[in-house]
Design goal:
Largest sheet: none
Shape: globular
Distance between the termini: 33 Å
Number of strands: 0
Strand content: under 5%
Order of helices and strands: HHHHHHH
Radius of gyration: 18 Å
Amino acid sequence: MGKVKQLFQIISYLQYPLLLIALGYMVYPYFIGFDTFWPSLNNALIFSGLGVGFSTLQDTTKTQNEFSKKVWQSPRKGMIALVAISATTLIFLLLGIYGLYVAKGGILKEVSFGVLTLGLGYVGLLKAAIEMHEHHRIAPEILD
Protein backbone atom coordinates (compact mmCIF):
# COMPACT_ATOMS: atom_id res chain seq x y z
CA MET A 1 0.00 0.00 0.00
CA GLY A 2 1.37 3.44 -0.89
CA LYS A 3 2.27 5.98 1.76
CA VAL A 4 -0.66 8.24 0.94
CA LYS A 5 -3.14 5.34 1.10
CA GLN A 6 -1.60 4.27 4.38
CA LEU A 7 -1.93 7.81 5.76
CA PHE A 8 -5.61 7.94 4.81
CA GLN A 9 -6.13 4.50 6.34
CA ILE A 10 -4.67 5.81 9.61
CA ILE A 11 -6.73 9.03 9.45
CA SER A 12 -9.86 6.92 8.92
CA TYR A 13 -9.51 5.63 12.49
CA LEU A 14 -10.63 9.06 13.69
CA GLN A 15 -14.13 7.76 12.97
CA TYR A 16 -14.13 5.94 16.31
CA PRO A 17 -13.53 8.91 18.63
CA LEU A 18 -15.98 10.97 16.56
CA LEU A 19 -18.67 8.32 16.93
CA LEU A 20 -17.92 8.10 20.66
CA ILE A 21 -18.43 11.85 20.92
CA ALA A 22 -21.75 11.43 19.06
CA LEU A 23 -22.75 8.74 21.55
CA GLY A 24 -21.80 11.08 24.38
CA TYR A 25 -24.11 13.74 23.02
CA MET A 26 -26.93 11.20 22.77
CA VAL A 27 -26.66 10.20 26.44
CA TYR A 28 -25.98 13.75 27.68
CA PRO A 29 -29.69 14.63 28.18
CA TYR A 30 -30.10 11.62 30.47
CA PHE A 31 -27.66 13.19 32.93
CA ILE A 32 -28.33 16.91 32.49
CA GLY A 33 -32.00 17.04 31.59
CA PHE A 34 -34.14 16.61 28.51
CA ASP A 35 -34.42 20.33 27.85
CA THR A 36 -31.05 19.84 26.07
CA PHE A 37 -32.33 16.95 23.92
CA TRP A 38 -32.64 18.67 20.50
CA PRO A 39 -29.31 20.57 20.66
CA SER A 40 -27.66 17.33 21.83
CA LEU A 41 -29.26 15.40 18.99
CA ASN A 42 -28.03 18.03 16.52
CA ASN A 43 -24.48 17.70 17.87
CA ALA A 44 -24.73 13.90 17.78
CA LEU A 45 -25.80 14.05 14.13
CA ILE A 46 -22.91 16.40 13.30
CA PHE A 47 -20.33 14.10 14.88
CA SER A 48 -21.98 11.02 13.33
CA GLY A 49 -21.71 12.66 9.91
CA LEU A 50 -18.06 13.45 10.52
CA GLY A 51 -17.46 9.88 11.72
CA VAL A 52 -19.13 8.42 8.63
CA GLY A 53 -17.10 10.78 6.45
CA PHE A 54 -13.83 9.71 8.06
CA SER A 55 -14.79 6.04 7.74
CA THR A 56 -14.85 6.43 3.95
CA LEU A 57 -11.11 7.09 3.92
CA GLN A 58 -10.46 3.37 4.42
CA ASP A 59 -9.07 1.21 1.64
CA THR A 60 -12.04 0.16 -0.50
CA THR A 61 -10.13 -2.72 -2.10
CA LYS A 62 -10.52 -4.70 1.15
CA THR A 63 -13.66 -5.82 2.92
CA GLN A 64 -13.92 -5.46 6.68
CA ASN A 65 -15.91 -8.64 7.42
CA GLU A 66 -17.68 -11.62 5.88
CA PHE A 67 -21.06 -9.88 5.80
CA SER A 68 -19.71 -7.00 3.68
CA LYS A 69 -17.91 -9.47 1.46
CA LYS A 70 -21.19 -11.32 0.76
CA VAL A 71 -23.01 -8.06 0.01
CA TRP A 72 -20.39 -6.55 -2.28
CA GLN A 73 -19.57 -9.78 -4.15
CA SER A 74 -23.20 -10.24 -5.16
CA PRO A 75 -24.25 -7.92 -8.01
CA ARG A 76 -27.89 -8.01 -6.81
CA LYS A 77 -27.22 -7.47 -3.09
CA GLY A 78 -24.65 -4.80 -3.88
CA MET A 79 -27.13 -2.93 -6.07
CA ILE A 80 -29.79 -3.13 -3.34
CA ALA A 81 -27.28 -1.72 -0.84
CA LEU A 82 -26.34 1.09 -3.23
CA VAL A 83 -29.99 2.01 -3.79
CA ALA A 84 -30.64 2.03 -0.02
CA ILE A 85 -27.56 4.20 0.67
CA SER A 86 -28.49 6.53 -2.20
CA ALA A 87 -32.06 6.97 -0.95
CA THR A 88 -30.88 7.57 2.62
CA THR A 89 -28.32 10.10 1.41
CA LEU A 90 -30.92 11.97 -0.64
CA ILE A 91 -33.39 12.04 2.25
CA PHE A 92 -30.78 13.38 4.69
CA LEU A 93 -29.60 16.06 2.26
CA LEU A 94 -33.11 17.19 1.33
CA LEU A 95 -34.31 17.26 4.94
CA GLY A 96 -31.19 19.14 6.03
CA ILE A 97 -31.47 21.76 3.28
CA TYR A 98 -35.21 22.14 3.86
CA GLY A 99 -34.73 22.55 7.61
CA LEU A 100 -31.84 24.96 7.23
CA TYR A 101 -33.29 27.24 4.57
CA VAL A 102 -37.08 26.73 4.41
CA ALA A 103 -38.41 25.65 7.82
CA LYS A 104 -39.53 28.55 10.01
CA GLY A 105 -39.08 26.71 13.29
CA GLY A 106 -39.64 23.43 15.07
CA ILE A 107 -37.67 20.28 15.51
CA LEU A 108 -36.39 20.03 11.94
CA LYS A 109 -35.04 23.57 12.11
CA GLU A 110 -33.18 22.67 15.33
CA VAL A 111 -31.50 19.55 13.92
CA SER A 112 -31.17 20.59 10.26
CA PHE A 113 -27.44 21.32 10.37
CA GLY A 114 -26.80 17.92 11.95
CA VAL A 115 -28.98 16.15 9.38
CA LEU A 116 -27.22 17.99 6.55
CA THR A 117 -23.79 17.06 7.96
CA LEU A 118 -24.86 13.42 8.22
CA GLY A 119 -26.08 13.61 4.62
CA LEU A 120 -22.69 14.92 3.50
CA GLY A 121 -21.02 12.07 5.35
CA TYR A 122 -23.32 9.69 3.51
CA VAL A 123 -22.21 11.18 0.16
CA GLY A 124 -18.71 9.94 0.98
CA LEU A 125 -20.15 6.62 2.15
CA LEU A 126 -22.01 6.27 -1.17
CA LYS A 127 -18.81 6.89 -3.12
CA ALA A 128 -16.93 4.31 -1.02
CA ALA A 129 -19.82 1.83 -1.43
CA ILE A 130 -19.73 2.25 -5.22
CA GLU A 131 -15.99 1.55 -5.17
CA MET A 132 -16.50 -1.49 -2.92
CA HIS A 133 -19.13 -2.81 -5.33
CA GLU A 134 -16.78 -2.33 -8.29
CA HIS A 135 -13.76 -3.92 -6.56
CA HIS A 136 -15.49 -6.96 -5.09
CA ARG A 137 -18.33 -7.80 -7.46
CA ILE A 138 -18.25 -11.30 -8.90
CA ALA A 139 -19.66 -11.84 -12.38
CA PRO A 140 -23.19 -13.37 -12.28
CA GLU A 141 -22.13 -16.45 -14.28
CA ILE A 142 -19.50 -17.27 -11.64
CA LEU A 143 -22.13 -17.19 -8.87
CA ASP A 144 -24.24 -19.90 -10.59
